[in-house]
Amino acid sequence: MSKLSLDRILQSQGFGARKWCQQLIAAGEVTIAGEPITDYRTSIETNGLAFTVYGEEWKFLEHLYLALNKPADYECSRKPSHHPGVLSLLPQQFSNRDVQPVGRLDHDTTGLLLMSDDGAFIHAQSSPKRHIPKVYVATTHDEVTPKLVAQLLKGVKLHDEPELLAAITCVMLDSHRLEIVLEQGKYHQVKRMLAAAGNHCTALCRSQIGQLTLAALDLEAGEWCYLSAAQMAQLVAA
Ligand code: URA
Description:
Alpha-Beta Plaits, binds uracil
């Protein structure tokens, strides 16, 4: 059980400063179980709480765990410079809660991107020690060959990386597409590995993290969803 006043609840969920939340409540813009609550001091159980603001439904969540199907031409950086940021694809109150991408995808990379406001989760997911596989589908400029696959599996030397970097698995999908599984998340890793092996990546999509597939989430490009407990449990090594 955890009770909070309604203004604190709205503030915690990213709807704005306390004063602003109090005004929203007084204006009758916040309802619970279909009833406007106009006294901001009303104490409410947060566990399992559903409420509406301006008629839109929300659930109280201590932390946000989201998946986004990232479209091309969006940047993961907090201060995007050449393209809009991925945060602009989420409701504004999520940015107010300091939601961040878990790791980065390049602006032209598409596919599965996790986002959260839980620092411990972001840290754990990004840690190489957890060996969480990430699956990418890379489209190449030149034809893919068994030799290329063998090189990527054996490991290639990247500038500034002391060790050879190798794919965990690498499968030819067709004449110009490879499915590559990596456990690390080095800067431009797939593109640089393909370049080091003598090819060039023309398009890149992340299709899976751990056991969670983008296909199972059924999101259009630019769409996001909350991750269920079952989906969270899939974000692990096999
Ligand atoms: N590897 C890349 O080269 N780019 C990405 O966005 C992700 C992995």
